[in-house]
User: Which sequence fits this backbone?
């Protein structure tokens, strides 16, 4: 049999690992399911509608840009736009007017991702770009959070309120002590924060659900421990030092970790492959930078929450970090 | 065996798929026509010393390695030299080959063909190295570096330890595995001879833990051989790369750009140790080798002792023919082997396996943008950054690639294997190494 024209020729290796970009992205989606369930339980159908709108808009915008503006092959099935869509929804309140989330999707995919060349080329986390643009453009709508559980049971007249971080910031600004702010607002039981019973964005409220998703990603080797541990560790250390200096002026590290977008940022935003450093040491540097900046902004900045800004600022340093912290070479000096 | 040793950096674990592991070695008859390339080892091609029409015997010298890095080639068959002409070989190019029409199987008189095991060796170091050179012994792991050159130790270096590479970390291949089980004693005698040639009293044999029968067998046999120890290693690709194997066994790192002798080691493949036994004790040149023929849909996977110069098609025929949907045929292992363009390619000293891949497995996964997942650099056993090197080579920034240590790359392919975006990292890096190597050579000739 003459096989001359039938055989494929290519360079080695001829075997390939089973993982692919698509698999990675869909595993990230699976890892986000626990947080999605919690948000549905806490906020009801509003959360689902926001998430679906966000996903569909992100996919549609990527499709339109690839098909009609860039005129390149459409790659929306790789799952990355879907991940961005869910993460964007995770970062907004569940009663956000739908047109705003569509604008957020345009900002995330259009400005945050496709401007740089699409998948893998973006410098900043696309979902965070979208979130920050929305926060600056629609500050009122973006900071009125429905109360959990109550809002899930009520169709009209959604009761809104601030997040624990905002309550704390306001209280401390008025000169109240940390313990007074906590007790006056019924925030002594941190277990409520961990399970998601606090005001906040759709996906950020339950530390436990996010951690469950993080375990899935760690197990699937989508993320490594370096960024989460260094991020949480440095944030806890920095806020812990402040707390030990004056526990009545600075809230304890546990409060910082369980409230706001800390857990979501640590496990799902800062660990984004595209926008985080390559070497393990670089990832630790990046994580420490995120942790310190987050606490700096929360404690001394104008905004009660600093996770998004901290991660975006550190995203900008990634190329420098990659240059400065190389993997250790075998047989290198 | 809870804490098995392995190398310290990177690595992957592809599906092992050793279908032929339980298949005993089958000795194949000489082919009707042998096609023997004159370039079968690293270095300069050998020069033919026979002419068209000459009658040759099995084991007769037919091409001489004259250059420093070059090796002798012997006829693997007896018969008449039909022609000396270009013929397609593994690389896909046509290269000079000595083509012999086989008549009978008449061996050179001085070759001992009995199966009796000869243990004693009274030769000196220099005599052994001379025999290795004379009998055309090259590294049989796949790199085919002439073995005698490895044993020319620079004066300022002291060898401490011989390492026998019986790792067989490539998936699918089982040739070394079978050799250890069936020719273990001969291999150990060969190891002893190599120790003598190197002037050391210590040899370590590294075997991956997926071959427990070979580990047990050799451990038992090695009790008779003073100084030889057998070490089970954790399965991790590319443990068969010599720098990685040294690291796994001794914890030492061969410095960048240096040879194993820098840390007091010489590494030889287990197949090479067996070939050395045959050359020194039996006076037999390197004219045959064990080749694994396998693939997911091959009817009868097997291990064959086959004469150099046998067309691959004969091996495939013995294993049940080419499966209907075959899309790729590989000479070597799935990680480092070469895809061959035709089944008429002859078996050479470097052919460790012939793999037949179904069409579906023979195509690469679709390529996407790099998502900067950093898996390529985390699996790189040399601690390099393939995601930087590949684009540097692609866009001809060879100076930059040199600064990022492209020449350290051992071409194991772990980066490409693991890349979720299916980027052909090693293709680019290989090209880059070629260009950077040329650049370095030009620079040194100018100075």
Assistant:
């Amino acid at each position: 049999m003459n096989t001359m024209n039938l055989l494929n020729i290519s360079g080695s290796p001829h075997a390939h690992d089973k993982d692919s970009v698509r698999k990675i992205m869909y595993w990230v989606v699976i890892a986000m399911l626990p947080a999605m369930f919690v948000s549905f339980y806490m906020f009801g159908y509003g959360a689902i509608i926001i998430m679906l709108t966000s996903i569909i808009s992100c996919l549609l915008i990527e499709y339109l840009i690839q098909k009609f503006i860039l005129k390149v092959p459409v790659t929306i099935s790789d799952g990355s736009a879907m991940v961005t869509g869910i993460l964007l929804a995770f970062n907004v309140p569940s009663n956000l007017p739908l047109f705003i989330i569509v604008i957020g999707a345009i900002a995330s995919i259009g400005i945050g991702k496709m401007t740089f060349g699409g998948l893998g080329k973006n410098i900043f986390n696309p979902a965070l770009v979208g979130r920050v643009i929305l926060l600056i453009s629609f500050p009122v709508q973006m900071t009125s959070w429905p109360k959990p559980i109550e809002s899930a049971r009520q169709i009209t007249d959604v009761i809104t309120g601030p997040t624990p971080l905002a309550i704390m910031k306001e209280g401390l600004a008025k000169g109240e002590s940390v313990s007074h702010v906590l007790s006056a607002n019924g925030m002594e039981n941190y277990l409520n924060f961990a399970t998601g019973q606090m005001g906040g964005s759709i996906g950020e409220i339950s530390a436990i659900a996010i951690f469950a998703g993080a375990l899935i990603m760690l197990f699937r080797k989508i993320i490594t421990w370096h960024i989460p541990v260094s991020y949480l560790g440095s944030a806890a250390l920095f806020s812990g030092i402040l707390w030990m200096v004056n526990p009545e002026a600075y809230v304890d590290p546990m409060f910082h970790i369980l409230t706001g977008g800390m857990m979501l940022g640590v496990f799902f935003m800062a660990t984004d492959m595209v926008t985080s450093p390559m070497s393990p040491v670089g990832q630790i540097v990046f994580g420490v930078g995120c942790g310190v900046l987050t606490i700096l902004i929360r404690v001394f900045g104008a905004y009660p929450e600093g996770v998004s800004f901290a991660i975006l600022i550190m995203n900008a340093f990634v190329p420098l970090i990659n240059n400065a912290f190389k993997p250790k070479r075998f047989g290198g000096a | 065996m809870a804490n098995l040793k392995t190398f310290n950096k990177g690595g992957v674990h592809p599906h092992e798929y050793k279908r032929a592991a339980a298949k005993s070695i089958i000795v194949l008859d000489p082919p009707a026509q042998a096609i023997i390339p004159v370039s079968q080892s690293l270095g300069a091609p050998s020069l033919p010393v026979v002419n068209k029409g000459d009658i040759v015997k099995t084991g007769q010298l037919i091409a001489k390695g004259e250059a420093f890095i070059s090796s002798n080639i012997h006829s693997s068959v007896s018969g008449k030299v039909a022609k000396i002409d270009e013929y397609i070989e593994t690389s896909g190019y046509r290269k000079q080959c000595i083509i012999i029409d086989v008549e009978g199987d008449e061996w050179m008189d001085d070759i001992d063909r009995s199966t009796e095991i000869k243990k004693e060796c009274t030769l000196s170091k220099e005599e052994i190295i001379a025999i290795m050179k004379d009998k055309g012994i090259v590294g049989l792991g796949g790199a085919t570096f002439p073995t005698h050159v490895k044993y020319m130790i620079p004066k300022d270096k002291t060898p401490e330890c011989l390492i026998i590479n019986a790792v067989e970390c490539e998936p699918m291949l089982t040739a070394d595995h079978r050799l250890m089980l069936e020719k273990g004693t001969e291999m150990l005698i060969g190891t002893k001879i190599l120790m003598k040639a190197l002037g050391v009293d210590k040899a370590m044999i590294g075997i991956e833990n997926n071959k427990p029968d070979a580990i047990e067998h050799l451990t038992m046999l090695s009790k008779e051989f003073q100084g030889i120890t057998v070490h089970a290693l954790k399965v991790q690709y590319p443990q068969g790369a010599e720098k990685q194997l040294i690291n796994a066994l001794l914890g030492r790192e061969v410095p960048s750009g240096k040879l194993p002798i820098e840390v007091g080691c010489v590494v030889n493949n287990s197949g090479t140790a067996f070939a050395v036994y045959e050359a020194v004790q039996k006076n037999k040149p390197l004219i045959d080798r064990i080749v694994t023929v396998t693939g997911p849909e091959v009817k009868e996977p097997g291990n064959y002792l086959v004469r150099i110069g046998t067309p691959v098609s004969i091996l495939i025929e013995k294993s049940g023919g080419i499966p209907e949907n075959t899309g790729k045929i590989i000479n070597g292992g799935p990680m480092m082997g070469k895809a061959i363009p035709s089944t008429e390619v002859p078996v050479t000293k470097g052919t460790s396996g012939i793999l037949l891949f179904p069409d579906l497995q023979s195509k690469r996964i679709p390529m996407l943008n790099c998502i900067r997942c950093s898996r390529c650099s985390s699996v790189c056993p040399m601690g390099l950054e393939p995601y930087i090197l590949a684009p540097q080579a692609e866009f001809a920034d060879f100076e930059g690639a040199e600064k990022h240590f492209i020449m350290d790359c051992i071409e194991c392919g772990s980066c490409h294997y693991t890349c979720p975006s299916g980027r052909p990292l090693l293709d680019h890096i290989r090209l880059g190494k070629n260009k950077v190597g040329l650049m370095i050579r030009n620079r040194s000739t100018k100075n």
Summary: Chain B touches chain A through 70 residues (CB under 8 Å).
